[in-house]
Amino acid sequence: MKTKLTALAVTTALVAPAAMAQEMTIVSWGGAYSKSQLKAYHEPYSAKSGVTIINDDSSAEAVAKLRAMNEAGNVTWDVVDVVAADAIRLCDEGLAMEIDADTQLAAAPDGTSASEDFGDLLVSDCFIPQIVYSTTFGYRTDLVGDTAPSTICDVFDTEAYPGKRALEKRPINNMEWALLCDGVAKGDVYDVLATPEGQDKALAKLGTIKDDVIWWSAGADTPQLLADGEVVMGSTYNGRLFAVIEEQKQPVAMLWDAQVFDLDGWIIPAGLSDERKAQALDYIMFATDTQRLADQAKYISYGPARASSAPLVGKHAELGIDMAPHMPTDPNNAQNTFLYNYEFWADYRDDIDAKFQAWLAK
Amino acid sequence: MTDATSQSGPVLAADGTPLKKSLARALRLQKTRALMLIAPLLVFVMVSFIFPIAKMLFKSVENEIVVETLPLTVAELQNWNAESGALPDEALYAAFVADMVVAIDAKRHTRLGTRLNYEHTGMSSLFRKSGRKIKKLDPAADGPFKEKLIDIDKKWGDVTTWAVIKTHSVKITNGYFLNAIDMQRTPEGAQAQPEDKRILIKLFQRTLFMSLMITVSCILLGYPVAWLLANLPARTANILMILVLLPFWTSLLVRTSAWKVMLQQQGVINEVLVWIGLVADDARLVMINNQFGTIVAMTHILLPFMILPMYSVMQTIQPTYLRAAKSMGATNWTAFWRVYFPLSVPGIGAGSILVFILAIGYYITPEIVGGTKGVFISNRIAYHISSSLNWGLAAALGTILLGVVLLLYWCYDKIVGIDNVKLG
């Protein structure tokens, strides 16, 4: 699955700065997401610099592959798109390069420094955020009766909303939702979850709907299950639900309550040659500026990570609908949100995952 | 006898050298030549196959990271007794700060934190957060450090933290193997994991059981098909053969997803059953996201690996044998059971080994259709390789799986005999 922009590069090769490498490999997730990056970042960048961009859809295995490449001493990727949790892991392992936001990223058009523009979203020294996406619920409008679900706890209410639910086959997010609906205050969720009793409490709450859950492991599962009517509601990434609702016109609606924000962005692998590093930094500087991040939202319903990009978000390139109300960060949608707690899950992921899997297998 | 004993020297070749030596030399030359011929292949196999596997397996015991990152601390820890319950003294804290300053400079401390976090939750952030502050300390001038470190994070004043570092400071560890069988390495020796974290043994058992079920269903379904293929006229057999091979040319994911469409509750089979009234609309059968779905999908995917060896063995069975048996009064059943079946056993053996070994290592299909009760041990291996990056544990699980396969292979050799396996 490698898409070469050769033709484009050939036409612009004449104006390319001679010192830079002529080809770079950018790793991403594939599908509609890679397409949005192709349109918003790669094509304009190739046109500007004459660099051929090779797209590699390996982000799902990026962490393991980068580690293997690093051990073999031959890193073939230049820029890699990963979720923030993976970026932290890569940074910890010394597999990603540290970036100084203020000197190596573009400032906002009004002069605000990059570190201020990204703000809290710079969750790791190696990570350059690109989009804010959220894991949230979609439900079948025709299968939920007269009153549509309005809060996250409706997911746990099998009497009011009988039928199967789709949840991700991992503890992250599910444990938080379970505690929230078991009466734990939002601010205390992670303190409770850090204790064995809290973990048992969360699993017990999930246990009340265990028989009604179909566990998914790929982001495409829930949209499919919803479209087939296999489940009445299910969690997935908001962009996937946007595609089901607006592009495929399925009878599905969004339940934004208690959506969990997560970040996706770039890292540059450690150990690149100086020439390739300069090339990668040049690309990053271009691709994460205010206009480019806003451009990506024309092709996919994920919110730009820069505060300065939000006002520039326009209409969908093909559907022609306003994208702002479909952004997870839109004020109407973001009334009750979580931000993925990276620090907590970096510590507790393996421990709670072992418990979660043992609980699933019971 | 007297002749032989009376002979004084060894037998000589024509040129006067002892015959034994001369023969050995000629043989050695031949062997070297043969070795040279296969050398490129041998080197290729060694480099591309055996070496990486051996390296991966070695990861299951390799644990140099602690000693390499904290050499002075590990040396000091030898003088400290975890069971005493008392905190280590200042010398250790000083050694630790000296080690950390070097490690932070090389950005190795977070890596160590990740490693220790596999054993004790919280180590990852402890090393990451403390690193930022320890960076500012000067090991030569800023002592004493004990108070300072505990000030930075109170976990440095917790005996458990140091006990964990000490327990995992050996260069060659059995820790990963213990983890792989639901145990853990503790200061007091190997102990069982808490009950709510025991999952791996269960998954090993389930993997073996399910692989066995899949192999048996492949035999039951594959045998008649292979028999038909071997006994039909060539033209019909060829068409059938294409049908057997067709799934081979289709993507694994497509085939697995097709089973989802067939088996899910709003799927083809349930729709048909409801339509003809065999099943009530509100009591649709659950046929996927469980063990049943996994066995069905995997049997379908692995069936060609069973049919092909059976077919090639059955093709070599002469029809005259059956006719001879019948001419001597055997019924169809007896002729099949006493003559044909024993001759076809090598094909079943070869197919079973192929299917079983492939099934034991499968993970994409169980991941997609397995739900909670149909996942295999390989799914955990994949998780530790690509998500948790705990390659040591993944390697230990892989080594155990390899050991189990070799053991079963050995049992098969003892019971059926490996000479009795034919691929054609």
Automatic annotation (TrEMBL), chain A:
Keyword Signal (UniProt): yes
Keywords: Signal
Signal peptide range: 1-21
UniProt key word Signal: yes
SUPFAM superfamilies named in the record: Periplasmic binding protein-like II
Name the UniProt record assigns to this protein: Spermidine/putrescine transport system substrate-binding protein
Organism: Shimia sagamensis
TrEMBL record, chain B:
Domain ABC transmembrane type-1 span(s) in chain numbering: 204-412
InterPro entries membership: MetI-like (IPR000515), MetI-like_sf (IPR035906)
Claim: Nucleus is one of the keywords in the record: no
Coiled coil: none
Chief subcellular location: membrane
Segments crossing the lipid bilayer: 34-54, 207-230, 236-254, 292-314, 335-364, 391-412
UniProt-annotated location(s): Cell membrane
Alphabetized Pfam families for the sequence: BPD_transp_1
Membrane topology: Multi-pass membrane protein
Domain of life: Bacteria
Family according to the record: Belongs to the binding-protein-dependent transport system permease family. CysTW subfamily.
Protein name: Spermidine/putrescine transport system permease protein
